[in-house]
Amino acid sequence: MVLEGSSExxxxxxxxxxxxxxxxxxxxxxxxxxxxxxDGVFPEDKEPVKYGELxxxxxxxxxxxxxxxxxxxxxxxxxxxxxxxVKPDVIHNVSTPLVSKALSNKSQHSxxxxxxxxxxxxxxxxxxxxxxxxxxxxxxxxxxDFVVTDTAGSGSGQGGGAAGEGGGGGQSAQSTISRYACRxxxxxxxxxxxxIYAAGFDSSKNIFLGERAAKWRTSDGxxxxxxxxxxxxxxxxxxxxxxxxxxxxxxxxxxxxxxALRETRSAQQRGKLVENESNTLQDGSLIDLCGxxxxxxxxxxxxxxxxxxxxxxxxxxxxxxxPQCPVGFNTLAFxxxxxxxxxxxxxxxxxxxxxHVHGYHNWGYRKDxxxxxxxxxxxxxxxxxxxxxxxxxxxxxxxxxxxxxxxxLDAGPPTHAFCPCGHVCSEKTVVGWSQIPLPHGTHAFHAxxxxxxxxxxxxxxxxxxxxxxxxx
Length: 472
Hints:
Largest sheet: 7 strands, antiparallel
Number of strands: 29
Strand content: 15-25%
Structural class: mainly beta
Distance between the termini: 67 Å
Helix content: under 10%
Strand order of the largest sheet: 3-2-18-17-14-15-16
Radius of gyration: 25 Å
Shape: elongated
Number of helices: 4
Mean pLDDT: 79
């Protein structure tokens, strides 16, 4: 794997041992998820230690074609039966043509920094019995614990449940996500700190930063670098569940250092080092891989979120209130949580500019007037409609319950919806996510619905739902 970017003129120091006590006569044992295929990701223990969970934004509970193995919308990281972590050991200065020979030891993890056509630096890694390593990327090779592909989300998408993923199971032909995007190292002892690093080890247990990759020698004589499109992280400014507020997006280096963002996503010049911030993940930390954004939730944070059973209870409570269409007087009902893409005839619809909830009707168009869709269940155009209650004009969309509990900030009643997609959740959840700018493209940021990835519109990005109760 060659990670391209930029280079700087560097003067090679002599070989440097990072861990003097290392016994160089004995090679490091086989490490990584390739030698221990995900034995810690799906444990059989009754009470395993959970480090946290990764949730891909834009998927409302599952991928479009369902979660399958390591390709899924959500993955819990558990303590492995045997540690597979690694840590820097020894630095070697070698001639670039001899790099492949120097990396011939398939059981040795290493990072290769190509400084020029004639000179490279290789950092060997050794087994760390105190950490577990989990790798994330687009590759389906066995050393990748969590296979992530591009999430389909845009400013014009409509809320129909889970957003697509290039067909749900396939990989995008023009994916901007690295095959070996990043790795997370979790300490095996309390408090089970999790740290993120850019780039992951390939099938040969190597990370290659080519001649054009952004790389440099640090002040203490070590090496560091950035990946092509970068790994961005944003830690919440406060407690994610109590006082949700967005932090500042930063870039994480191969060695886990924190930098300000480059001018554009793949610019050759790195940002300024941010010395007072770290790569330690906390509840609510966001990880952007340039094509998909992941949310890190801790076990403590997840205790504040609703379970699938609780979401189903909330749905039943909404339906038990017998909300009615204020025009047709027919009773409305939110469909089953498993029904995420097919609009039900009793499904509530909302005028997103005012919040009035109705049953579906095929009238009131003010622009791009068109006939009903197949079976009369959805409009054929996305033209704006006039609300018959308040005469406000705006999008008219079906309401969908947010099914991914890990994206909630609390277990409050589902009283609000994101605009313009119509995903319904608690007030605290819509307020929190509407403040978070998510990366898009090379240098753009937009607030988006976490359930489908649709860019938020309107002054607030969300609306309070106004239901009509039964008249009897």
